[in-house]
Amino acid sequence: MIANTLPKSLQDNPRLDQWISFRAGAGAVHVRAGKIEIGQGIATALAQIAADELDVALSRLALTAGDTDVAPDEGMTTGSMSVEMSGTSLRIVCAEIRVLMLAEAAARLGRPAAGLAVEDGAITEDGAPTGLDYWSLGVSLDREITGAAPLKPRAAHRLIGTDVPRLDLPAKLNGAGFLHDMVLSGMVHGRVLHPPLIGACLVGVDEGAIARAGASFLRRGDFAAVLAASEAAARAAHAVARPDWQGGRAVTPDMGEAAWLVGKPALHARFREAPRAGGERVSATFSRPYISHGTLGPSVAIAQFEGRHLTVWSHTQGVYLLRRHLAALTGLAETAISVRHAQGAGCYGQNGADDAAAEAALLATLRPGAPIRVLWGRADEFTHEPAGTAMSVTIEAALGADGMPADWVTTIWSAPHVARSHFACMLPVQSLPDPPDDPEHHDPHPDGGGGASRNAIPLYDIPNQTLDVHVVQRPPIRTSALRGLGALPNIFAIEAMLDDLAGRAGIDPVEYRLRLLSDPRARDVLSTAAAMANWAGRGKGGEGRGMGIGLGRYKNRSAYAAVVVEVDVDTEVRLRRIWCAADGGLVINPDGARNQVEGGIIQAASMTLKEAVRLGEEGIASRSWAEYPILRFSEIPEITTKLVDPGDVPPLGMGECTMGPTAAAIGNAVAHALGVRVREMPLTRERIAAALQA
Amino acid sequence: MSTSFTLNGAAIILAAAPGDLLIDTLRSGCGLTGTRYGCGEEQCGACLVLVDGAPVHACGRETVTLDGRVVTTAEAVPGHIRDAFLAEQAGQCGYCLSGMLVAATALLARNPAPDRAAIVAVLDGNLCRCGSHPRIIAAILRAARGAA
Asked: B-contacting residues of A 144-183, CB under 8 Å?
């Protein structure tokens, strides 16, 4: 038997009609995909791909993504995989349908298929209509995908590779477009009372005040909520509920530091092992704190339990995984649950989306009939979404006689980066009677993308690498996936170390990297970004102005990016200019790619310079934008981006490729400006002052 | 208690009690979901509306204070400003954009030809988490040029 070499999405969803159907009469093409829109533009990119391979106008497409009743299961929308997975799958499906249609038309016309073409869904011969089209041919798509049809060559693309405007933006600029806006008849509004500490017990609540606010109170175990006829009434009742929480996993402010993780009970994995080389050894430890996703719109969900069927609307990144968790939560069969995706604000990883959906589902099964909407408040989002974990990264290297690293030993301490797959990690689950035990958290293997180990293995040709990862099993706060996982802190650490080694060797940092770099595409983005920034003229540094560079290939297998940052540093860091060169292979929508690349730069700059979740005795103490500042308009520099064209190669996921290189470039620019290195993120005024005094 | 004001060009009379917030009146009462609930603490700018031409956080403004005022929401910003945002593809998730449109409308009414610094000064209270800032600035410059 020949091994199935189709993409996993097609192996899991192997029939053509799971992806595409034609609506006769309407002249429409219904496209279904598993990857959902989270502000990254995937809906537009998938429409471009389908329309291009099918040879139909973009306006004919209707896309349904993320619906357990009708859309294919493609797992989670995570890890910059959507164009690579969903896009490649759709290309194969659409190319195959086009070939089937042409074969059917050829048979009906008694002509060779080679003489026929498709123009906006109509079959033509020598440019003349044949009277046949996709809708009238009636070809059954209830058949297995073979993957045998050739994909269009790059030169034949009409839409792929062009700046098609985002299909979802007009609605969003006209006051619609979000799950927050959905109103169902008879909808009841809920707010959940969240325990401040993990595992805290609810010993009392002011039920009288809740009733006076016009709301009812509902609890099961320590899961408790107020329900009211309007969002405002639910908010008011939540504000006066005065829950009395006792116990729970105690936290203190120092637990918010990455250093707290080091030495705590952990699962250890040694992903690389090599002998140590001789020579002088250099070692440094880098860190970043817990980071909030900072979703601008709080999490929301609607659930309705009616006629023994549970329907949930959520801005989850994975409707099928959420359905599995909801089945475990409610005791319902998965077939009795429908999960429908609707858009939320940008999530950048696992925010409160799934938790809010679980809460709404619980409330709906406790109160069957009316649809129940759960909306989080700003403080809920800051204090109860799973944060991106703090990380401590220690790199030790031996220096060869040539000044280049002769070994490379990395030791990482981290809390879990990925908790989504564990039912027990859903927020309301731990508040229910007899909660399941904490699961074991293993770090995903770096060869499959990694978690804490993501991008911990340098892209460079460095011999004798050892990589140890310790995943602390009981961190002080909930953690899960944040854009890039370990890529940002790991690339920050690697690139800082390389700069410092280059300095010791008296070699320019770009030249030092090039000596360690055989991958031509990595060399190309590095050299391109350096040229864009006039790296050769960057000056000596040490007097308050600095320029630094950072390079990475996301997950060591997705898109390449090199970022150069110029800063001024006095008491704090001011970004002056940023340049970026990125290589994402075949780019479906260059403008969309640039938007993602630049957005990643700004978000990573914000994390690197400003962001840290703060802990106090009452749990997370940074509860508002005032207490968790992010980069503002006045702090955004001019950014110049170039998409490097590597020729006719497959697409590589780009959504997260600039996170690590940006953090690294800022760290290196600050070191260049000051002449001393700050190794702990965020690079605040206090840390800069401390580094200068050391 | 009834409150009457002009909403997006039309006279409106509605029942409002002290404590009722404009954001709830607009979203739930009037179905104008363009006014986004972001933080409820007047810190992110997603809920900005114009009251007599000045940007106001709808999440912090009581509806009863609007008697006789002129309220403009994101749904009613001038078309050329919205078109400029589309032309620049100024947005990613889009959740912050209503507030950006409203802030831009107030700025351009006051200063039809703002430079980058003037735009940045006005937008500094508006948060964007996706990092669309450069495009939003470019969109407002484009709207000012009338090149949309």
From this structure: 163, 165-166, 168-170, 172-178, 180-181, 183
